[in-house]
Amino acid sequence: MDPNSLGNDRTIEVSWAMKASDEAEMHYNLITSVDPSQLQLSKEDQLIYTQFRKSFPELDIGNLQEADLKSPSAKENWRKFCRKFDGVIDDFNYGTLLRLDPLIEYAESNTVFATRIQFLAVEIARNKEGLTTKLYQAVKNKRLQNEDINQLSDATKEISVTS
User: Fold this and answer.
1) Phi, psi of 89 (to 5 degrees)
2) How far apart are the first and last CA of the chain?
3) For the domain 3-162, what is the CATH code?
4) What is the rounded CA–CA span in Å between residue 62 and residue 64?
5) Model confidence pTM above 0.85
6) Is 56 helix (H, G, I), strand (E, B) or coil?
7) What is the pLDDT of residues 46-62, one digit of tens each?
8) CB count in 10 Å sphere of residue 120
9) How does DSSP assign 71-106, residue by residue?
10) How confident is the model at residue 159 (pLDDT cuts 50, 70, 90)?
11) Cβ–Cβ under 8 Å, residues 105 and 28
12) Long-range contacts of range 38-42, CB-CB < 8 Å, 24 or more positions apart?
């Protein structure tokens, strides 16, 4: 299929958006169900992380701004970084969604379009540097509180039924 002949096919755009949304949901479920410090997002996590921090030592991944990815100078720096993974990471330049704030779930106001290698670099760094663990712990604590409330509610119902 010749990509130049496709134009702006709305069905392709919708299909991509659905796939990106599904991947974002899967990623969020993963990082809130398993301690992210134990996760490996690719076979090349260490290489990606090392190259990322070498290329972007001061990038604040805890408070990412769209300009960190999209400004003219950022685009040039990211382009150089991304090229290093051509042939190393499958679909390294495939479009995906990236959270700006690692403590908030995927939402329109907290999401930016990025390439797969940008997503991997930022999320691997967040996992290794403990930022995603904060979200994991918060969600885990909320789930435990909800379980306690549900157990208390069930016990209350049982008492009222037997009384």
Assistant:
1) -115, 125
2) 71
3) 1.10.3560.10
4) 6
5) no
6) coil
7) 999 999 999 999 999 99
8) 23
9) SHHHHHHHHHHHHTTTTTSTTTT-EEEEESSTTS-S
10) low
11) yes
12) 39/127, 41/120, 41/123, 41/124, 41/127, 42/89, 42/120, 42/124
What size, in residues, is the chain? Answer: 163
Tokens describing residue 150: 């549900």
Angle separating helix axes 116-128 and 72-83, nearest 10 degrees: 90
Tens of pLDDT, residue by residue over 5-56, are: 555 667 777 787 888 889 999 999 999 999 999 999 999 999 999 999 999 9
What whole-number distance in Å separates Cα of residue 68 and Cα of residue 100? 10
Contacts of 37 (CB under 8 A, 6+ apart): 127, 128, 130, 132, 133
- What are the domain boundaries of the chain? 3-162
